[in-house]
Amino acid sequence: MPSENDRKPVEILIVEDNTADLMIMQEALLDTQFLANVHTTRNGEEAMKFLRRVGDCSAAPRPHLILLDLNMPRKNGHEVLQEIKSDRLLMRIPVIILTTSHADDDISRAYGAHANCYIRKPLDFSAFCDVMRQIEAFWVETVSLPESSPCV
Amino acid sequence: MRHRTQLAIAHPSDKEIVRDPDAKPNRGGFAARLREVGQRRFFAPAQHQGKPQLRLGHCIEAAVLETAVLVVGVLVFFCKSPLEYGLLPILIWAALRFGVLGAITCGFTIVVISTLSTALGFGPFVRSTSQDSLISLYAFLAVTIVCTLYLAGVFAERKQAEREVRRLNAELEQLVRNRTAQLEATNQELCRSNAELGAFAHVASHDLQEPLRTVSSCVQILQKRYGGALDAHANEIINHTVRGCQRMWEWINAVLTMAHVNATTECQENVDTAVLVEQVRADLAHAINEGEASLSHGELPCVQASPQLLAELFQNLIGNALKFRGDGPAVVHVSAVRQADEWVFSVADQGIGIAPEHFERIFQLFQRLDTEDRFAGTGLGLAICKSIVTRHGGRIWVESQPGSGTAFFFTLPANPQPC
Q: How does pLDDT run across B45-85, given as a tens digit for each residue?
């Protein structure tokens, strides 16, 4: 088992429209010393462009993990999730829903569309850091992820 | 039998309208006819088809009746047949089927025939003198025709009453239609305001909490990154801000719970309250372990309730017992006793207690007895408890003395089914 020091950084795509939330997430990643290359997109359309390497995203890496907000303008998180999970090239990437909503409807819709897990954004910054630590511990250190650029 | 089938076909809401509450057994046929009238709109096509036939049938019947009167009259008064009482059923027939007019027409025919025959010296009423003959004849005719007319009059009255009932039925139907329309309008209005409340709850849950989290988190980041560069006062301000956000967050969630309780209509699941209390123990494990509290329960029943709301109720009451403990660790006991057709639950502690003058106030919205510094809270917990209990058709009250513990009691209807 590789030690933490020789682990390669994981590619993470954050899809989040709120700049303050984006900053909080990045701060939390920084705080937890999450070894990752973080890519950010501000709405669903941008996220799909990034994932499909369209236009100026042609050199975008294939992320290992996607952190997806639900309430976004233009294309919301549910639509993005649907598109990712029905695209043969993208469906393997674990999608973590990270949202303020704790509506039963949102939760069941997300899992219905094959979200890999659903996390409610905590109020507290230190709780947010805990969430990031747990994401790293589970999704990076415990589970085995598919290759970053799968050839199909 | 026929009207029973019709009731089964009729719309359920119309059943009550057309049922005649005064229908006595001996008026069964009549009452059934009234019901038929009340339900005419369900059988309207058949009746329209039947109407011309009915008129033709009436004419034929009238002709047959008149012929019968003539034939029997001639037989009785000219042919010496001993059939004079055979005229009675024919007159009754005329009275029942053609009313007063029918009775008069037939009566008149008989009077003409009999007077003519008796004057000519034929028939059963011929006596030695013509005067005696006519007296004898008219005595017979008077009794017969008066009885027939009386019968016709009674029957006409019944018909009049039938028409009146029909009119009243129609009015009642119209009234019911109007009321139904009003109820539908009110119902739509309620649905609309419920939907608005749901939308508000969504806005509150997402849009209000979002900026709150931003403020709270940003201030905490500020403290973490630049805390060293700030003086003690600045750090205290940051702490106040974070605590303020935390309270605001709790308030929003409490108001949302309140809205959820009021919007919940499904309260009919079979819930084992013992399981529920164990679930609450797990949820409150942190508070229980931290305060070295003890939570016990006696035998608890199954009830018909919403499991989410009942869990919220136990969580609030047990949470309160843990929070308002005395100097020592909290000791909380949950029990239930059956009283008549309801269960009386109690959540008792040995905590700081409540003075009797506050018993009413604590169940009201936003009412708190302590400062935020001493005991944190929104002042909504017990108001939510009251809403939940009321929603399930129960009552909630408290018994306590300052310094000697508190017992919250609430009732829930007893469940006929076992666990």
A: 334 444 555 688 888 988 998 898 888 888 888 887 777 78
Which superfamily, per CATH, for B266-413? Histidine kinase-like ATPase, C-terminal domain (3.30.565.10)
Question: Who wins on pLDDT, B260 or B390?
Answer: B390
Report the run of H or E that residue A96 belongs to, with start and end. Answer: strand A95-99
pLDDT in tens, B163-222: 999 999 999 999 999 999 999 999 999 888 877 877 777 666 667 777 888 888 888 888
Among A62-76, A78-92, B246-260, name the one with the lowest average pLDDT: B246-260
What is the mean predicted confidence (pLDDT) over A90-117? Answer: 91
Total residues belonging to chain B? 419
CB A124 to CB B220 under 8 A? yes
CB contact under 8 A, B214 and A24: yes
- Domains of chain B, by residue range, sit at 43-263, 266-413
Residue B39 tokens read as 């339900």
Q: How close is the nearest chain B Cα to the Cα of A20, in Å?
A: 6
Among the listed residues B335, B413, B398, the one whose alpha carbon sits nearest the alpha carbon of residue B364: B398
In angstroms, the Cα distances linking B253 to A32, B27, B281 are 29, 65, 21
Considering CB atoms only, which of B212, B217, B246 is closest to A128? B217
Backbone dihedral angles phi then psi of residue B30, each to the nearest 5 degrees: -65, -45
Cβ-defined contact of A100 to B249 (cutoff 8 Å): no
Q: Are strands A95-99 and A117-120 parallel, antiparallel or unpaired?
A: parallel
